[in-house]
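We give the entry.
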Amino acid sequence: MKESLVIKSHFLIIIMAGYFTLVLNWPFFSRLYGYIFALESYSSAFALSIPVLLFSLLCFLFSLFVVKGLSKLIFIPLLIISAVVSYASQEYGVVFNYGMIENVVETDVAEASSYVNIRSLIYVVLLGLIPAVFVYRIEISYFPFLKELGVRVAVQLCSVLMSVGMAWGFYEDYAAVGRNNQGIQRYINPTEYIYSTVNFLKTNFVTAQHEFISLGDDAKIATAHAGKKPTFMVMALGETARANEYEYNGYTRATNSFTKPLHMLSLGSVESCGTATAVSVPCMFSFLTHANYDKEAAAHQDNVLDVLAKAGVQVYWVDNNSGCKGVCKHVTTIKVDVSATNPNCDGEYCFDQVLLPYLSNLLKRNKGRDTLLVLHLIGSHGPTYYRRYPEQQRFFTPDCARSDIQNCTHEELQNSYDNTIRYTDFVISEIIRQLETASADYDTALVYMSDHGESLGEKGLYLHGLPYDIAPSEQKHVPALVWASHDYRTDRLWQPACMEKPAGQVSQDVLSHSLLGMMEVETALYDKTMDVSAQWRCIERPIAAQHTAANDKQPELIQPGAKPL
């Protein structure tokens, strides 16, 4: 029988620290050295000191976890997970901070599988699985306890001395690089994702739960005259659309051909609350702002959908994405069935036009009731952009028909992404046509706003989810559009002259108050200065009788194949 390779515990520490430094942290070094080598002058000694410093720090860290009986249980999964992290950081520029860990936990199988391709599998097998098998097969040798303790202390002492020596000797260089590259340390593997995971677990499973705060208990629907038509509004929640890809915001390609004839009002380039769905969606529907947003606080108080429901508005959420992130937990919610029996679905995803029958159904069933229908689009969700639009909407070619988008040409990637924007525009136009058709029964309106933006290879970055403070503009600026029927605009005294005024720089902070204003809901929570529609009403009017029709029992929204979230 072949004997196992025997490695002393302190050598395992050195081997693991060296492997992580030289191999799995290549994404970190490639970005850092890219900056350093671009300087007019730099110290070669300083450049060489960086891997020595990281190696020393990792030696100290790993020395804490090489424990008899536990070493393999720690390093085997650590190697595999770190290889995945290294791939995502190298290929897409992803940082595994708290928000990204939250995204990973909340993702579904279909979304996760979209990132799997031959390149990613080879990368993880070569850099993660094979080293993990090596660790599994070796025999780790330990000294007697006291000697092992002495050796371990010696390793730690050497690590500290080397770290201090490097940092002290090149203090000014490290300080300068740190000032000019804030956030670069977040690419260090595995410390960033370990810290973020611990923080996520602590926040969600250890920290004491907040007491739920009820908001908007005074909410009520007001109208200028009794017996007016009820309001039916669609809130189209977009996914991964960036503002600079919209014709309304100066883009030169025909991405808004379908809605441009429909008299849309663009709010310009809107600042998002986050760079990932798990942050932006709860934030934008809350009464918190980007400046004071806290996930736990938002989860333990009513959001705008809850307040609208308290006022008597019939609120529905239909989801063609990965869920509402807790926003819709108190309202009627339908998850689109993605089974391939639906011609708009392939068993994993559906094109967004699958949402149109839900709107048609509700317009027929909800007559006489004030209604808000949130349609959660899958929009431009990557990396499989080519799966977000049907063949007949493949307008810009050649496109990028693969998930490893970093290996497509920029033209192919841009074409695929622009096709998703154009297809979303088509879906919005179809929503508006249905609302126009129903304008005899309702005052109808639509608000479209994306949750966050996307990187398409600029500065080597792809997708989204970077920490907000270091994320590029493309991930933080989203489109927002408003449409309203003639009767809706007339009833609310929206004047063309006022609507032509620029809304100025707005953020997702305005969404909740704008929905209250557009649904004409009165509550002490409402802040007129945060309602973008308030500026379109040139003439103020008194609030008259309270509308009571909306207090009728909410009918069930039914579509074949639909299932509750």
User: Anything to note?
Assistant: The first helix runs from residue 9 to 24. The first strand starts at residue 6 and ends at 8. The two ends are 55 Å apart (CA to CA).
